[in-house]
Write a structure and sequence with these properties.
The complex is a heterodimer of chains A (597) and B (231).
Chain A (H helix, E strand, L loop, with lengths): L1 H10 L7 H12 L4 H11 L3 H8 L13 E6 L2 H5 L2 H12 L5 E2 L5 E6 L11 E3 L2 E3 L4 H12 L4 H5 L21 E3 L12 H6 L4 H11 L11 H10 L6 E6 L8 H8 L1 H15 L3 E6 L7 H13 L16 E6 L9 H8 L23 E5 H13 L1 H5 L9 E8 L5 E6 L4 H7 L5 E6 L5 E3 L18 E6 L4 H16 L5 H18 L5 H14 L5 H5 L2 H9 L1 H8 L12 H4 L1 H10 L1
Parallel strand pairs in A: 1-3, 6-12, 7-8, 7-10, 8-9, 11-15
Antiparallel strand pairs in A: 1-4, 2-3, 4-5, 11-12, 13-14, 13-15
Chain B lengths: L3 E6 L2 E6 L4 H7 L23 E4 L2 E4 L10 E3 L3 H17 L14 H8 L16 E2 L5 E4 L8 H5 L9 E4 L6 E4 L9 H10 L5 E3 L12 H4 L9
The chains are: A alpha/beta (597), B alpha+beta (231).
Chain lengths: 597, 231
């Protein structure tokens, strides 16, 4: 065991900023990170145990205890629940003989919950030893457990029915499906690998920045910051060492577009990073990929290797003097907050994903305190297309403030969930028609951190000027209980994913859960509902986007679906203290006296 | 040589060195901005949010903001005072704070701020979390019930080799501050005292030492928090 730790640490030259990689490698060898292992790491790196522990204990996929020979991480997202997750969970528990959050007595099977794994259009889905299993049923769950008990490998459990496109690539061999339902002109158009970089080297870095500026590309992660401006600031920032990050940590429940883009167009993404590097003057690129997509690792490493062979990465790229750029993949380890760019940088430095105070912004002081550009997957793809087709072509697509296309992930109660690349300016109604949804109660736009809108707003337009979205639309049918099935689930999600640094986010996300349960249980008051609006103004003063939006599932439903709340608190409102539950309050007493009797 | 700049807080013209932390610069000009996670001499982290002010109408933490020429700051406005009171109340409801039996009562910044904001009964639901009193360390007692996770000890306490003694564990509402058994092994009495002093509440205590100043003579018994600035 000591050898494993030492070998891994040697592999990363004892560089403590690579702690995430070390922990992942060690865990995949030893199964878990025991106190003893943590002590070995602490000694070898000469950093305190508590500092190793702060990283280990922050991330969902790191564990200090064994999680079974087969570790089943079953998704708990709203979409999984819509598709019958609870019955699948029950089947797993019965077959494995243990509850979720525990490991079977023989140490064979561990059952664990996990937040959205980016498979919202093929739920219920689970990750078993880094492989993704989609469209689970209770029947399949029982089969899987039987296979595990019979000693089958995960590869054997997976079977040989692979998904479409590159999901069937020999280096992927996954059952995951792309479900590309609508291709657009920007991201999902035909692409000749290498063409983006070849075009870039015929231009100067300033020309590229000017072109990106004139195309008016805005960040596709949700914030919508103009990409050209970001690059310009990073280029002008003093220093020789600069970094390009591609943010592929899409953790917003209901979002899976980056997975499909990276699966089908890895060249486009990596070339976008190289173009950014060329424009900004950076030599190092890092793709920060969420751990849930680790099944793509060998395939993506292979693409990078081929790009090096084809002189699309490395030194003197395409023979251009001074154009040196290479890319490494940094995996996350299960933390939604790392999608926030400064938390992502902290994580890539081997620390807990706690967002930084701004200023300074990453373009001034980012990764290892150097100027750093963080761009979304889709943003980088758009840039390559603009290079090839020009800014005039791009500007003809979309609306006045929102140029180009948007790739959206649609899931929930509709006939055709999947990936749609649409021009900005489509209305929610247009999309509902496209995905063939009927009896729609609500649409969650932009995931839990976005807003839940009612039919009277379905004519609103997806665009930065009206309804901005990072890329997810969840269709909620009339058969769903909005508070119980959706709002409570999202509230739990934010409580679990808060980094815990800012007081309002850490405390109110947990308190909200208590309050929502109280309301659902018929013990809430109108005052409790009103309190959320005040809480929202408190949350707006958190440091990062997660904290600022964590109450959105509640406040947007209070605003757009007031009757859902009114119905829950009706008739109980005039009692003196509806939150007081007499039976619960005397339960201990009852138990004690009945025992005595 | 440092440059002096002019800025305003609630319309009052103030002067300070350029680039100085807003909390400090305000104090120099007789304006109190409440803080909890901030501590003079250690890098600010902006995590308690209580020092939030409005700069050009936008919220920003005064501990992480540097003063620049012409900055217009809003501080003593109802929106912010309500927010600050809420932060104090949230902290009381989030942990288990029993002032009468606490060694730091009268020295506690959280308690002093609760008096300043005239907290009566918090309107946030009490969480009554189950938390540990960690007593394995020979010199330090860590009462997690009282910890407000301000990170002051993490950012400000280092052993003789410059290694941290405290660090975060876990995340979200399960977050906790851990003591490193190795780096704290030969901790000096002075450093334990410094750790206790740096803690705004009574979460870090020096063992074998209880109430050494009688009630009525403790820091905030004598003068309320903020009075050292607001003259």
């Amino acid at each position: 065991m000591g050898n494993t730790v030492n070998n891994v640490i040697k592999k990363y030259n004892g560089d403590e900023t690579r702690l995430m990689d070390m922990l992942m490698d060690i865990q995949s060898e030893l199964g878990y990170l025991s106190d003893w292992t943590i002590e070995q790491i602490s000694r070898a790196l000469d950093i305190p145990k508590v500092s190793v522990e702060q990283t280990v204990s922050f991330y969902h996929f790191f564990t200090k205890e064994p999680r079974g020979k087969y570790t089943i991480y079953l998704n708990t997202s709203v979409l999984a629940v819509f598709c019958g997750r609870d019955n699948v969970a029950k089947a797993f528990e019965e077959a494995a003989g243990c509850k979720f959050g525990t490991v079977s007595k023989d140490g064979l099977i561990g059952l664990f919950d996990t937040a959205c794994i980016g498979m919202s259009d093929q739920e219920p889905a689970a990750i078993i030893n880094e492989e993704v299993f989609t469209c689970l049923t209770p029947e399949k769950a029982r089969e899987l457990v039987a296979g595990m008990k019979a000693g089958k490998t995960v590869d054997e459990l997976k079977g040989n029915k692979y998904g479409d496109g590159q999901n069937a690539n020999p280096l992927v061999r996954s059952m995951v499906r792309n479900n590309i339902m609508k291709k657009g002109e920007v991201v999902f158009a035909d692409y000749t690998p290498g063409s983006g970089i070849k075009k870039a080297v015929s231009m100067s870095s300033n020309e590229i920045i000017q072109l990106v500026k004139s195309a008016y590309v805005r960040g596709r992660g949700g914030a919508g910051f103009p990409t050209g401006m970001k690059w310009e600031v990073a280029k002008k920032a003093p220093g020789d060492v600069k970094y390009i990050f591609c943010n592929a940590d899409e953790g917003e429940p209901g979002t899976f577009k980056d997975r499909v883009i990276i699966t089908e167009f890895p060249y486009l993404v990596f070339e976008g990073m190289a173009v950014a590097g060329y424009a900004v003057g950076a030599r190092h690129g890092i793709l920060y990929l969420r751990n849930e997509y680790r099944y793509l690792r060998k395939y993506l490493e292979d693409v990078l290797e081929r790009m090096r062979e084809e002189s699309l990465l490395g030194t003197f790229i395409c023979g251009k003097q001074g154009f040196n750029f290479d890319i490494k993949i940094q995996f996350g380890a299960g933390a939604y907050v790392c999608g926030e760019e400064s938390a992502l940088i902290e994580s890539a430095e081997g620390k807990r994903g706690e967002p930084r105070d701004r200023p300074p912004f990453p373009v001034e002081k980012g990764y290892l305190q150097k100027p750093t550009v963080v761009n979304n997957v889709e943003t980088l793809c758009s840039v390559v297309r603009i290079l090839l087709n020009g800014s005039d072509w791009y500007n003809k697509l979309g609306t006045k403030e929102s140029k180009g296309t948007k790739v959206i992930s649609v899931s929930g109660d509709c006939k055709k969930p999947g990936i749609y690349e649409i021009e900005w300016g489509f209305s929610v109604n247009d999309i509902i028609k496209m995905v063939e949804a009927s009896d729609v109660q609500a649409v969650q736009v932009g995931g839990p951190s976005g807003s839940c809108i009612a039919p009277n707003e379905f004519s609103r337009m997806l665009s930065y000027e009206d309804l901005a979205t990072g890329g997810s639309l969840i269709i909620i049918g009339k058969k769903r209980d909005l508070l119980k099935d959706v709002v409570l689930n999202f509230t739990e999600f934010f409580r679990d994913e808060s980094c815990g640094s800012c007081v309002p986010c850490r405390a109110l996300s947990g308190m909200s859960k208590v309050m929502i349960e109280r309301i659902i249980g018929g013990q809430g008051t109108a005052k409790d509902v009103e309190a959320f609006n005040k809480w929202q103004s408190i949350m707006k003063k958190n440091r990062c986007g997660l904290g600022q939006t964590a109450l959105n599932p509640i406040v947007t439903t209070i605003k757009n679906f007031p009757e859902a709340y009114k119905n829950s608190i009706k008739a109980k409102d005039d009692r003196f203290c509806p939150a007081f539950d007499l039976e619960k309050a005397v339960a201990d007493y009852e138990a004690a006296t009945s025992e005595a009797r | 040589m440092s440059t002096f700049v002019k800025f305003t807080i609630d319309g009052i013209v103030c002067m300070s060195e350029e680039g100085k932390q807003l909390v400090e610069a305000a104090a120099e000009n007789g304006v109190f901005i409440p803080t909890l996670c901030n501590y003079p001499g250690i890098p600010p982290k902006g995590s308690c949010r209580i020092c939030t002010v409005l700069i050009g109408g936008r919220p920003a933490t005064a501990c992480t903001t540097k003063v620049v020429e012409g900055m217009e700051v809003k501080n003593n406005v109802p929106e912010l005072e309500e927010f600050r009171k809420a932060v104090v109340e949230i902290l009381f409801a989030e942990g288990n704070h029993l002032c009468p039996s606490c060694e730091k009562s009268g020295f506690c910044e959280l308690q002093a701020l609760a008096y300043r904001y005239k907290m009566m009964v918090p309107e946030f639901p009490y969480m009554f979390p189950k938390r540990e009193v960690e007593a394995w360390h020979p010199k330090i007692l860590k009462d997690h019930n009282r910890c407000i996770l301000c990170k002051r000890c993490i950012r400000g306490i280092f052993n003789s080799e410059g290694k941290p003694i405290f660090d975060f564990g876990k995340r979200g509402d399960k977050i906790v501050i851990n003591i490193d058994p190795d780096t704290s092994k030969d901790i000096s009495d002075e450093l334990v005292q410094k750790s206790m002093d740096i803690c705004p509440v009574g979460a870090i205590l020096k063992k074998e030492k209880g109430f050494d100043v009688p009630i009525g003579k403790r820091r905030y018994d004598l003068a309320p928090i903020g009075s050292e600035v607001e003259k």
